[in-house]
Amino acid sequence: MKERFAVLGAGNGGQVIAAYLKRRGKQVTLYDRFAQVLQPIRDRGGIQLEGLPEAGFAQLDGVYDQVAPAVKGAQVIFVVLPAFAHAYVAGELAGCLEDGQTVVVCPGATGGALEFRAIWNQAGCSAQVRLCETNSLFYAARAKDAVAVVSGVKDELSLAALPAGDTQAIIDDLADVYPQLIPAANVLETSLNNMNTIVHPLPVLLNAGRIESGEQFRHYFDGITPAIGDLAEEMDKERVAVGKAYGLDILSLRDAYVHYYHVQAEKMSDLCHMTPAHATIMAPAVLDSRLIVEDVPMGLVPISQLGKAAGVPTPIMDAVITLAGALVKRNFWQEGRTLEALGIAGLSREELLKKL
Amino acid sequence: MKERFAVLGAGNGGQVIAAYLKRRGKQVTLYDRFAQVLQPIRDRGGIQLEGLPEAGFAQLDGVYDQVAPAVKGAQVIFVVLPAFAHAYVAGELAGCLEDGQTVVVCPGATGGALEFRAIWNQAGCSAQVRLCETNSLFYAARAKDAVAVVSGVKDELSLAALPAGDTQAIIDDLADVYPQLIPAANVLETSLNNMNTIVHPLPVLLNAGRIESGEQFRHYFDGITPAIGDLAEEMDKERVAVGKAYGLDILSLRDAYVHYYHVQAEKMSDLCHMTPAHATIMAPAVLDSRLIVEDVPMGLVPISQLGKAAGVPTPIMDAVITLAGALVKRNFWQEGRTLEALGIAGLSREELLKKL
To answer: I want to staple A118 with a disulfide (CB 3.0 to 4.6 A). Which of A216, A339, A343, B110 is the partner?
Structure first.
């Protein structure tokens, strides 16, 4: 059981985790890079939590726009940030980690823990810390003006440490606050179980004209048409095949819908439409939303690269990476999570698996 | 000057060419594979031509649903068909060509003449015929119930023979009816000057959700948004670069708009919107329209393949080929005009240029 937590990131997810942990009686500090994001929380002196049994006001033990004071003395550090902010925060952490701390990248997107480790190694960080990632967020939530409203809680979330030998100890440490954590084989499993890579970039790309025209439409319900759903399922086979090449039995998108949302349909598009919480989500208003600039470079790129390293072709993913990048005038092949960025370039499949 | 013409294909373009040539006093036969397409023309005994100085009724000298009787005795054979019908018609022609005939593939899409020659060679056809292709159609026109209405005529159209040594003789032979023909260096020039490859598949792909949702919108005006226009221009650079690798100065899409439509703008999307005839064209109602199933396999695939053969990367084209194919559940990389299908696989750049 741990008592002192730091939460890095004051977005929807970070605010809920911070408030929830505080309401569970923990000591909690909160960090965000942008002081204006923290201002409403500072003004209010904490966060009002809604939608959980632990609802109520959470007065935090510190609100910081610097990493170092936020994590000083913390036993567990939750990183709850868009994946494109991971590299920055990992760099900041490198200088102030303390022996015995545990860092939970929540979620890691694809390759989060590997990227943290690579950045710490490169910075010569020698602190003895545990590092892990989850495959998704605990909550569906929206936070505004220091009021965080939870609309859904995952009743199962997988976690893997790097190295995997630490996984069970971390799960045990967090069991009092997050009993829904289950162990994944290794960080490749949590990383490849990133469903956003399948349901985010492709539909945005194939609805680009609509988005840029200012049309308002529902991302899943209107954006994932039958042919786009079928294509997403084809792309998903590439993700599952990459997992298989590393000895992992990755849940397909179809099976994930059946497993998590208890829906059944022949067409992938129907499955996407049948989950009420998803169906009402609106499409982004701009092309370079997180559905592209997070899920392509920190999702599809590392999956494609892991595929190449294992001899598994990923032609549909590769096409999406190239086109989505060209559409928003960025080269995700260069700036994304390459094997170099993850510190695993040049390793054989066996060497990589041993490292995990 | 030639007097006996056959027109293969009774679509919009074919009906206008047949009627026009007849109105110019030539002997003209018309072929289409589908008898029901010919029925209105047979019922009427010919085609009513509108929108040209030669307007009036054109009583044809034969209307056939077989190639052989249509081309028997013809001096010039115009092939005015979607590119995906070229292989079939080339095969039919192989058995009934006569020495001295000229075949004009109008337009050739990308690689039309090469494909005809490859199919004839494979079929062992030994007739001494001239073969050429144009880079576009003569007319913008619509034909219905044996009434063909012309809304625009190109005042310049390039033509190349295979081999190029025949180009000028063919242009001279056709000068009385089509004085706007100008010589291209070779069939790579006419083939690479296929603008449809740039303005058709990409906007369809990036508006796929809209199309499949049944939304009615204008292909150029609504479908080519600023970012899609910029991306089309990026893809166009690949086409121009492939031409350059073969010593050709290919007109860019931007320069083509300036040259043909006398418009000027900074954004590619604005150029696409500024040509009234284009701006009002509606997007296709289905994903597997000619804008995909013709322009990808008979346009982008051969350009990409020619690029690979010359060491010119075409990443955006390649992504469009893969994604558009997967979207309509076809593998255009296999069924498209590969270098094998064009009879030029394994040739060095120099060997290829010599063959042209």
So the answer is: A343
Asked if residue B279 has pLDDT above 90, the reply is: no
Give the per-residue pLDDT at A330: 97
Residue B129 confidence class, pLDDT cut points 50, 70, 90: very high
User: Token pair for residue A354?
Assistant: 């041993």
**Mean pLDDT on A317-327:** 98
From the options 3.40.50.720, 3.40.50.150, 3.40.50.10860, 1.10.10.10, give the CATH code of B4-187: 3.40.50.720
What's the pLDDT tens digit per position in B177-214?
A: 999 999 999 999 999 999 999 999 999 999 999 999 99
User: Are A75 and A176 contacting, i.e. CB atoms less than 8 angstroms apart?
Assistant: no
The SS3 assignment for A344 reads: coil
Mutation pick from B230, B282, B323 vs chain A, by most beta carbons of A within 10 Å, is: B323
Which amino acid would we find at residue A87? A
Q: Give residue A323's pLDDT.
A: 98
| Residues B211 and B283 sit within 8 Å (Cβ to Cβ) | yes
- Range(s) for CATH 3.40.50.720 in chain B? 4-187
Minimum-distance CB partner of A227 among B207, B287, B319:
B287
What is the average per-residue pLDDT within B132-157?
Answer: 94
Q: Which residues make Cβ contacts (< 8 Å) with residue B264, sequence separation at least 6?
A: B258, B271
Q: How many whole angstroms separate alpha carbon B321 and alpha carbon B312?
A: 16
Average pLDDT for chain B: 96
Cβ(A151)–Cβ(A138) below 8 Å: no
CA atoms within 13 A on the CB side of B127: 18
A262 is catalytic: no
B207 touches A: beta carbon within 8 Å: yes
To the nearest whole angstrom, how far is the Cα of A281 from the nearest Cα of chain B?
Answer: 16
Which of B218, B289, B318, B322 to mutate to probe the A interface, most A CBs <10 Å?
Answer: B322
**A228 neighbourhood in chain B, CB within 8 Å:** 208-209, 212, 327
Residues A90 and B94: their CA atoms lie apart, in Å, by 68
Q: Do the chains contact at A223 and B209, CB–CB below 8 Å?
A: yes
pLDDT tens per residue, range A253-271: 999 999 888 899 999 999 9
Q: Domain A196-355 is of which CATH architecture?
A: Orthogonal Bundle (1.10)
Which residue carries 């994932």 as its tokens? A224
Q: Is B48 left (phi over 0), alpha (psi -120 to 50) or beta?
A: beta
Residue with tokens 């594979």: B33
The correct answer on CATH 1.10.1040.10 for the domain covering B196-349 is yes
A4-192, which class in CATH? Answer: alpha beta
Write out the residue limits of the CATH 3.40.50.720 domain(s) in chain A: 4-192
Asked if the model's pLDDT at residue A304 lies above 80, the reply is yes
For the segment B57-64, the average pLDDT, to the nearest whole number, is 97
Q: Are B98 and B311 in contact (CB under 8 A)?
A: no
Mean local confidence (pLDDT), A14-23:
98
pLDDT at position B261: 85
